[in-house]
Amino acid sequence: MIHSLFLINSSGDIFLEKHWKSVVSRSVCDYFFEAQERATEAENVPPVIPTPHHYLLSVYRHKIFFVAVIQTEVPPLFVIEFLHRVVDTFQDYFGVCSEPVIKDNVVVVYEVLEEMLDNGFPLATESNILKELIKPPTILRTVVNTITGSTNVGDQLPTGQLSVVPWRRTGVKYTNNEAYFDVIEEIDAIIDKSGSTITAEIQGVIDACVKLTGMPDLTLSFMNPRLLDDVSFHPCVRFKRWESERILSFIPPDGNFRLLSYHVSAQNLVAIPVYVKHNISFRDSSSLGRFEITVGPKQTMGKTIEGVIVTSQMPKGVLNMSLTPSQGTHTFDPVTKMLSWDVGKINPQKLPSLKGTMSLQAGASKPDENPTINLQFKIQQLAISGLKVNRLDMYGEKYKPFKGIKYMTKAGKFQVRT
Amino acid sequence: MSSNSFAYNEQSGGGEATELGQEATSTISPSGAFGLFSSDLKKNEDLKQMLESNKDSAKLDAMKRIVGMIAKGKNASELFPAVVKNVASKNIEIKKLVYVYLVRYAEEQQDLALLSISTFQRALKDPNQLIRASALRVLSSIRVPIIVPIMMLAIKEASADLSPYVRKNAAHAIQKLYSLDPEQKEMLIEVIEKLLKDKSTLVAGSVVMAFEEVCPDRIDLIHKNYRKLCNLLVDVEEWGQVVIIHMLTRYARTQFVSPWKEDDGLEDNEKNFYESDDEQKEKTDQRKKPYTMDPDHRLLIRNTKPLLQSRNAAVVMAVAQLYWHISPKSEVGIISKSLVRLLRSNREVQYIVLQNIATMSIQRKGMFEPYLKSFYVRSTDPTMIKTLKLEILTNLANEANISTLLREFQTYVKSQDKQFAAATIQTIGRCATNISEVTDTCLNGLVCLLSNRDEIVVAESVVVIKKLLQMQPAQHGEIIKHMAKLLDSITVPVARASILWLIGENCERVPKIAPDVLRKMAKSFTSEDDLVKLQILNLGAKLYLTNSRQTKLLTQYILNLGKYDQNYDIRDRTRFIRQLIVPNEKSGALSKYAKKIFLAQKPAPLLESPFKDRDHFQLGTLSHTLNTKATGYLELSNWPEVAPDPSVRNVEVIELAKEWTPAGKAKKENPAKKFYSESEEEEDSSDSSSDSESESGSASGEQDEGDSSDDSSEESSSEHGSDSESASEVGDKRTAKRNSKSKGKSDSEDGEKENEKSKTSDSSSADSSSEEESSSDSESESESESESESRKVTKSSMLPVMALFVRERGSKRKSQIILSKEKEKKKTKQDRNPLTKDVSLLDLDDFNPVSTPVALPTPALSPSLIADLEGLNLSASSSVISVSTPVFVPVKTHVLLHRMSGRGLAAHYFFPRQPCIFGDKMVSVQITLNNTTDRKIENIHIGGKKLPMGMQMHVFNPIESLEPEGSITVSMGIDFCDSTQTASFQLCTKDDCFSVNIQPPVGELLLPVAMSEKDFKKEQGMLTGMNETSTVIIAAPQNFTPSVILQKVVNVANVGVVPSGQDNIHRFAAKTVHSGSLMLVTVELKEGSTAQLIINTERTVIGSVLLRELKPVLSQG
């Protein structure tokens, strides 16, 4: 399946290569560079590039292209999903996934890749298992290793690999047993010029951080499970219990994992917690344009909106902007024409606004379209769909764990057309 | 030279290094003066030293540096001898890194690599499975042809290893060996065959992968493992799931008949609408017969459904393509929601998923219409995603949503991403051609865009307008004039060419403008693009033909310019046009037709989706994404006309299942045929169920069918006992009919039919001799189905159900022997499949049982819910006679013992609605015990029982202890003797005894039965009078939708749904657990908001109790 993997940075250097079958010359990447040039932007590089003898499937994350070389027919999503899993694993191991980090840990990276694929077919992709096979580098462990001469490589087959719960390792021990669940909902919306909603959806996830001793069997139930329209689970969740009782029953992996992602059906009306008042105008005659936006809370259920960031890609004709915000800071990059305004918290008494003028290229005609405004925000302690966790029970172990549930609403792809 | 090396010494620094440097000098000198190389060599020297040191830490450091070199793509091959020595290192990390190195370079240094082999051979025997596995991994990754035999041996051994992990690695090694030496194929297939039988979920994915790589055509290896794979699928790791699902999709396409046939059948039906009733009836029968889904086919579809919920996009896509390619059309809809969910994922995933959705949405608009808004474009999407979304929006556009879409498109046209804006204009053009209502609106909109400031937008609009005008050329003079003006400003060649073409085509409508345009163009001819030049030539030619007075000179001027153009295409075109339009002595007859040639009616271009023809590639494959055949792409075969023998999937154990094994079975052929006929029977008895399974079967068709079967039974009762003459007539007709129907079949079938007829009489007479009560006139009449039906009535009225089964099995065995003899006779003539089919047709006429002998997969409700139960059952080939899977209902628990009265011990019970494992006549009851105290409860068991007469109880095994907060579920069986009497017993712990009792709701005393509508009616006919109770229900109409009724009835009672041909009648069938008497429930909807509830059963007491229970449930809001 996957023949080779090349890691390419944004300046077009191949800084890591790994082959699982016979070696494929790195000149194969020339086809990729060609496509990259044609695409102008990294985002537009096609994920599948055919070459005379190979096919290049790539993903672009953290400013790195992960290019897999394959030779024969294979479901493209298989490879793409796997590459994403590789990136996730690196992130899990090193905290961040960036070129310098990968270069620093090249041996661990190599060992991990060796375990993840055998002859191009995925072998161990669960991070719990991988971490048992190859321990992630920590400062402490490096020091210990240099003194004692022990290694990062485990010499026993991780028990999870063979058990019916391959995602959990055995012999987990904690002095403080805790299980935290974050219900995070993101609102995807397109708001039109007049402020009416064109489309709005709620996508949610439940991320868990479970640090429990032994083999706990958890059940999580909701007050209103009917809200969840479409769900996808971590493999640990017992599908049948969900189907029959709408209860999440699972033996959790150790550590951080995504328990569930869900979608709240589009039929339910989505409460839009913010509104944006905008007045952006270009005039044909003058080389100055007016720019004014105000952000205010709408349906927030009494919670404050924080972390508001407004970004907008201005038309090419805009040379510079002179703006004054009533709060927060703003930047305008005259090269990329990206305006970004970090608002912070919204105070309903004193609505934040950004006003000023834009200087346009002299002589150029006015742009036909006003820029779209992208919005980011966070609301703590609120799940906008109204989803509520009812209770969390633990079976199979005797101790009393500490349980915590946190709700948060965020903006997903939240766009306001102007 | 020495100075050179000296410099490097200084760089590396350190006293030791200086020495090394001197050594290095000597090695370099002969090789030449390349500084770069010497630097590498010297560095490697240093590494060699470290590798030869005694300290593990130094070795490890060296290995790490070497791996770093490999990772960067630097050549480290000459360190091979030094590295390979460390292969036996005790330090596991060094060992692993050496492995990494070996795998990378062994191919280049084959001789040296052999040194390491013995180490691996030793490691293969290591007690630690991880070491065994990794030894095998490395050994098989070393691409050295000399060790092929060793690898083969190692694989064989590992495939029998106790550790599934090692076996998994063996499966991987198979592929490696195969790519190294394809000669080994045969031997490897043997290993694959062995590993396919493996029951471990760990191995399944890898071995199927090996199968796909080595021998994808050996589909026969899958047969025996098919059901196992289906059942294991959910537990296999995600990557294995993808591979298995893709393989099974191909498998299903070769092994099952198409579930899409209904559509064809419908057409047939309509065609023959005016045929006589008699024929019509037969036709319908025939149409229904060919298709009932193979239970194995259903199994696959059902078992993959939960995987749509997977977090892995590849798995979801794999299931989606499986549904698309092999499930009935009516069930494909469920995948759209999951696919839309994937759109939230990364850009790359979106890209692939959108491509697949685009292909699907061309064929099945309805699937994605509800999700229209999910495809709205955001300004932050990458361009490729935007264009794909546009593509899908276009495919989904229809009269209802086009106005919303056009408004959305307006926003897109203004987008700053001009490439995307241009694509939007194309899209608007396509919408305009597809939906005639909005053509004018779109055209006007596009004309407005002509005044846009952006050139790309204008150019694209021109091109699209040109296409639109071509479709309806009339009365658009204004637009053409407008466009002619644009020629002064617009520079994009395609647009200019389009305008010129348009003017030329419509030159008679704009007689004043056209010559003027030509004049302008003549001036700028030399500076135009080639594309434009060609169109200028065309315009000139057309004008010359229509308006030669004004344009003759101009055209000639242009032709002269063209004659000396640099581009040979243009010179060529010029010559051609000159010959054609300018009459001279050389020009032939053609010039007379010049006008016709140039100004012919041209067909409007079809604006089609680029995804139109992609569907011939399997969805979700690389080939589909690229729209070309990728290396190694395996074509998805068409459905077979006739399903290959399904018995090949029976596993040995099942063949031994007691019910079906004839005592004197000698030949191997027997079980196969038996299975076949049995499934055919099932098809017949459920002939109308295929309708309910797929909504696509039109209601009218169903109605027809219901009617005609009514007719037929009436007819048959009147004709009953008539002479054989009429029967043979029927037979003749039927033969003719079949011929007309089975176009694909060979002519020889005719002859075959004749034989068949004679054979029929043979077999049926033989049959009649074996069965005393079979009707005397069955000789040749047995071909007529209605007749056999009526006979069945007599049978079933005489004997209780169970006895009938026994007898029927016996008779079947006999008939099989007869048939198999005949089959042997005919083998030379016919190929096997059609024959078996015909044989079984006869079989079914003769032995159509009262109710189906095989559990039908319940067609109606969420099949996946019962999947687990079904999965287990199916592997045993549905040995539970006539009992079908219960329709799923939420579990209702009852309190057995409250925790207060039980001193902390709480007990609940519920009826799982499964056949009891403790005894045939028992109802299974599950009891959940909870310990709510803070100490252990020990020795929970059942004490004294106080049971009414005849009642029996199978208790659960005593539970030694129950932890605090613990809970345990045990099952027990109670034979309630078909009564609702209470079973009282004592639940005891070590210290206490609590009296508890279980009173069963009447609905739980039943087991669902699968039967066809026909059988149902028959049975009902016999259970009239005393055995019938009925009542009238009044309720609001919304409670009388089929799903509501079904829900309510199955909530109350454990009954099976009988597929119904009529919308207003719902039928349910069950048998009582203890006595096995039938319990038939009918809900017939009447005018207004009333309905009649009828229950037919021998057990009148239970019947009336059930009636009383059902009535309030059905009538309540």
TrEMBL record, chain A:
MHD domain: residues covered: 176-417
Principal subcellular localisation of the protein: Golgi
InterPro entries: Adaptor_comp_med_subunit, AP2_Mu_C_sf, AP_mu_sigma_su, Clathrin_mu, Clathrin_mu_CS, Longin-like_dom_sf, MHD
Subcellular localization(s) per the UniProt record: Golgi apparatus; Cytoplasmic vesicle membrane
CDD domains: AP-3_Mu3B_Cterm, AP3_Mu_N
GO annotation, cellular component aspect: axon cytoplasm; clathrin adaptor complex; cytoplasmic vesicle membrane; GABA-ergic synapse; glutamatergic synapse; Golgi apparatus; presynapse
Keywords: Cytoplasmic vesicle, Golgi apparatus, Membrane, Protein transport, Transport
Signal peptide residues on this chain, from the entry's feature table: none
Gene Ontology biological process: anterograde synaptic vesicle transport; intracellular protein transport; synaptic vesicle endocytosis
Pfam family, one: Clat_adaptor_s
Membrane topology of this protein: Peripheral membrane protein
Protein family according to the UniProt entry: Belongs to the adaptor complexes medium subunit family.
Protein name: AP-3 complex subunit mu-2
Naturally occurring in which organism (per UniProt): Ursus maritimus
